[in-house]
Amino acid sequence: MIKCIIPIFLSLSLASLSVGQTSSIWKKYQEAKKAGNEEPLPDYSYAGYGFGEKAIPDVEAEVFNVTDFGAFPDDGKADLEGIQDAINAAEENGGGIVFFPPGRFLVSEVEGASKCIEIRGSNIVLRGSGSDEGGTTLFMRHRLFPADPKIGWSIPPAVYFTPLDKGLSSREILMAKGNAEARLAADAQRGDFQIKVADASGFKVGEVVSIAAEGTRLNSYYLDGLKTRENWERINTRGVAVTEKHLIKKIEGNTLVFHAPLHDRFLVSDDWAVIVYPVLEECGFEDIHVEGNFHEVYVHHKQNGFGAVSMESCLNSWIRRCRFTNLINGAAFSGCVASSMLLNEIGGNPGHSSFSISFGTNNLFGLSRDVCGYYHGPNVSHLAIGSVVWRYTADHGARGGPDFHATFPQVTLWDACDSKYLDSHGGNFKDLPNHLGGLTLWNFNQTGKPDKDVDYWDLLPGQPDKPYGPLTVVKPTIVGFHGADTTFDRSTVGYLESLGRAVSPESLYEAQLELRLGKKPEWIEQAKTEWKEIIEDRTE
């Protein structure tokens, strides 16, 4: 958990603060980095493909054209088997590009089916011929049904990347129910690049490990002194659950050295398990339009089955330059590490969830937009840590704002985003609060009506039987919030600066990357330029 070490900014001259004034907390962050002291902000700069250090690659590999396997666009015939055969051939080859020529492919023609397109090997890129008119469309005529009728969340998306056997879900691994290879043997602090385990013989360089614990013993630290509601069943009975996943860079004795620093504090007394976590590597889904057949008015939790693409347990992978329309659920990362969703758009008839990051560590979602207003905006939930939502826009529809969907996400950055609404949060009331510590809203531009006296820890004391309440977050940091005249209950905010005026740097993620690497990586400006061109082409 991140504990702020700077008091709330109580300047009486907010109105005179000029746009672009350098943030005070940013200055203190730079000073702390230079001096090697505890920083007043989390370091979010390791989010994204290659830990933010390099561009998503334009892969050159053997091409498996789906038409060579019997999947032909625009012929009115089902294409699921042909597409799957092309993927299987690429997997047997050890990788490759599964290529879709222009046209419309039919991927869900059987009513009542639960079969989807599955990718179970590394180095597989599904590449279309563009997501706009004249490009590639994967069309879902019928909704998919649960793979297990007793488990509602087992409904697959149209396209599903996963290394896991159907009998072993990422939830079991991430909740420390899998076989622990080792236990933590020495305390480790936020910012460290290594942990010591009792026995490192079960690990290899290049593997991903999950550091996991669950229990009420964790509650005091992660709640930072805040009380819970009686109906928050999980945290009260089972306690906070935490997992943080890392790629092993080298092994020195019983010390595992990682590519990225720890976001969390790990104490031996808290009994942390260290688990080998299976992943796919270098997988991509790009330049494809996924279209569903959802045209009803969405009723929350009453409809499902039109989901676009999900990457589960993927490392250094990506979803980019895609469009998603007439769906209930768009694109999702589940249990991914150092992966990116960039340059994507969701529209058409709005459904449930636009974009989602859950269970993973150091993932980036950005340079994307919702043009219709999904019920939930970008969803960061379920033990996700180190997530960044960067330069996202949601100015349309009735909802579509930030979503913190409970089950203990932490250390999340919303960075230089425009949204009509301050939140569209969700999550079962039994799994609240919505977010633990480390949430930062940086230069958030609220374009809709203002909210007044936003209380981030309202436990509804006069309404004990009411299951849901306002968004609950452990002491967020809010810097440069502007647009609408929204105000906050400052007793529930960890740090508040420059309310009503944007600050410099414009993007905290970009600034932290530049500070860490000595210069801003070229992919940042290239991606921003590409996104601007995409938007201009679509508005002509």
TrEMBL record:
InterPro entries hit by this protein: DUF4955, Pectin_lyas_fold, Pectin_lyase_fold/virulence, RHGA/B-epi-like_pectate_lyase
Domain DUF4955: 373-526
Domain (Rhamnogalacturonase A/B/Epimerase-like pectate lyase): residue spans on this chain: 64-129
SUPFAM superfamilies recorded: Pectin lyase-like (SSF51126)
Gene3D superfamilies with a match to the protein in the record: Single-stranded right-handed beta-helix, Pectin lyase-like (2.160.20.10)
Protein name, entry field: DUF4955 domain-containing protein
Organism: Rubellicoccus peritrichatus
